Every structure is written in structure tokens, then in C-alpha cells.
Amino acid sequence: MTLHHCPESLAMVPEIASAGPVSAWGLLRLRRQLELGLPLTPKPYEILAEKTGLSEHEVMTAIRQWQAHGLIKRFGLVVRHRTLGYTANAMVVWDVPDDHVQALGQALAHTSYITLCYQRPRRLPDWPYNLFCMIHGVDRQRVMNQLATLIAEQGLEQTPHAVLFSTKAYRQRGGRYVSHD
Amino acid sequence: MMRLDSTDRHLINLFQRDLPVCERPYQAMSRQLGIAEEDVIERLHSLQASQVLSRVGPVFEHSRAGASLLAAVAAPEEQLDLVAARVNRAPGVNHNYAREHTYNLWFVMTAPDEETLEERLDELEHQLRLPMLRLPMVEAYHIDLGFPIDWEALP
User: Fold this and answer.
1) Is there a contact between A73 and B60 (Cβ–Cβ < 8 Å)?
2) Do B54 and A175 touch (CB under 8 A)?
3) If you count DSSP H runs as helices and E runs as strands, how many of each does chain A have, helices first?
4) pLDDT tier at A82, thresholds 50, 70, 90
5) A161: helix, coil or strand?
6) Where are the domains of chain A?
7) Rounded to a whole number, what is the distance in Å from the CA of A39 to chain B's nearest CA?
8) Does A43 reach chain B within 8 Å, measured CB to CB?
9) In angstroms, rounded to a whole number, what is the distance separating the alpha carbons of residues A130 and A128?
10) Which residue in A104, A119, B2, B129 is deepest, having the highest Cβ count within 10 Å?
11) Alpha carbon distances (Å) from B24 to A40, A43, A60, A117, B38
């Protein structure tokens, strides 16, 4: 692994990066360790400090700054919804006129049962859809009811769409951007 | 299906985000929950072991933490498990789902940078011998899965 694989984590903490190359490597190691999860021991940041060669203070400062700058968007318990009984997971895709996609995307994102919403490119002729949203639900019927409500509320009766329920999860885990696979 | 007691539910409700960043985070959490620090740690261990939690820690912003891309292939139905296993063996795959569509296998591939990502996708496409739909994110309107759990609706 070389440093250029991950320049942004360093740019994100200029105060620490300026301390020198040892800290820079330490930050890269910290990113890797964090992707595996926080140790479940009374002083987890001290453990991370030992593993990365940073001080406990540097570890906590880096995490706080990554949060403040948005590299870490959420820091906490990562739930597997499937285990809890959220077994119906529908990816709903829409073919929305380009000049309307942003407004609709923002509206969908503010709908309580929509858990993800992205614009993506069409791949014609195979794939005409440019707006993706995810509905995580307890059962299929409830998800379909939510979708019907959504279509009525947003006036999407004429908008071509497809509903792709997931039938099997072969893998679900956090991204490991800097780890070796 | 996992049934959790009220303390576990409370723990999840409070800490899907904003886990304390201080010397004794589990102690800080235990005070909010009115239980012992060891109890918090024990519960987190057991929630991980029973797969209710995939981990405790950060969710990185994909577009800033590295490169990632949603891809799909249309696998012959009888080969779906086999194709899915091949996809899982490729480096950087962190989500992989079967879905009801002609494009029936959907996965997210990640890499430290765009160049490596393209190489990994090219290699996988070559191995699978299936045309791959590549759908990079253009814009995210809502990207966080830390939504409130509707405990009452669960079976």
C-alpha cells in the first residue's frame, strides 16, 4: 500500500498531517482499523492508538475531524436490518426527465420510508432509469402500499418505473476502502 | 428473527449515530442508559454475535472515502448462486443481492481509487463473461441508513 491510495484522509486532517510522515501513515492505519469496527473494550481509542502508532488523543481528534468534514457521515451502531425482520427490501427505479430528476430526488429523500435515494446514469437501451430509491420494509405488501402512496403523493402515475425486490443477500458489509482484500 | 429486550432497543435507538468520542465511550453510553459499562460492552458483543449489528464504528462517505460503484449483471437463473459466489470472491465487493429483474444480481464494488475500481470491474466482467451494467452515483439525495427502527411493526 502506498500513500497515494488514500490522499483524502490526510487532507482531511491538516493539523495532524502536518506533524509529519509517521502520523500520516498512522492515519492510514487508523482508517483501516476503523473499517473493521471499534474494539469492544473499555478504552477502544487507546487500543486503536496502540495499533496505529498514534496517540489516543490523535486518534480521537482524527475521528472528530473526519466527522466534522463529512468523511465519516455516521459513527455508531451499524444495524443489519434483515436480522431484525426488515426482510422486504425494494429498489425502486424511475425514468425521470433530466430537468425534473433533482427536484424529485430531493422530495423522495424526505419521505420517511425511503432510506436511500441516488441519481445514476441511464444505460440505453438496456437501462432507462436514472433515479434510484430504496424502501426497507417489514413485508412486501407494506412496501407496495408505501409505493402506491408515494406515486399518488408525487403524481408519478405516468413515470416509468420498476420495483426490484431483493430475494437473497449474498453479502452485506461496510466498505473497506483501504484494506487489502 | 431476533427479539431484543427494551435496553437493547434503547441502545440501538440512541447510538446509530453520535457514538461518544472520549476515553471511555461505553461508560458515557452506560450513563445515558442507566446500566453498567460492562453491560453495554457485553450487549454490543452479543448483538454483533447474533448479527443484529454488523459493527460498531464509522460509516464512511463513499464518494470521499474512496471509489465505489453499483453494478448489475443478468445471470442465467440456474447459475445465479454460482455467479454471486464469483462476485463475492472479487476484491472490494461489499454488497451483493439477488433482485427480481432481468438484471438479477446487484452488487457494490469499492476500491481505494477510480483506476483500481475500473481494473477490478474489468477483471470481474471478463471472468463472468456477462455484460455488466455500471451505474456510478451522479448525485446522492439521501445516503444514510441510520433510520429509526420501527420496533412495533417488526414481527
Assistant:
1) yes
2) no
3) 8, 5
4) confident
5) strand
6) 3-69, 81-165
7) 8
8) yes
9) 7
10) A104
11) 11, 5, 11, 36, 11
- CA gap A69, B135 in Å, rounded: 26
Using DSSP's 3-state secondary structure scheme, residue A55 falls into: coil
Q: In what order do the strands lie in the sheet with A131-137?
A: B132-135, B67-73, B105-111, B93-99, A161-172, A88-94, A131-137, A114-119, B139-142
Confidence of residue A85 (pLDDT cuts 50, 70, 90): confident
Judge: A84–B52 Cβ closer than 8 Å, yes or no. yes
CB–CB of A93/A129 below 8 Å?
Answer: yes
Q: Model's pTM, two decimal places?
A: 0.74
- Residue among B15, B27, B93 minimizing CB distance to A171: B93
Contact: B100, A167; criterion CB under 8 Å: yes
Which residues in chain A are contacts of B89 at CB distance < 8 A? none
Query: B94, A83: Cβ pair inside 8 Å?
Result: no
| Shortest Cα–Cα distance, A23 to chain B (Å) | 18
Model ipTM? 0.76
Tell me which residue of A77, A79, A43 sits closest to A60, measured CA to CA: A43
Which of residues 57 through 76 in chain A touch B, CB cutoff 8 A?
A: 60, 63-64, 66-67, 70-76
Chain centroid to CA A75: how far? 11
Residue A81 carries which DSSP code? Answer: H
CATH tag, A81-165: 3.30.70.3460
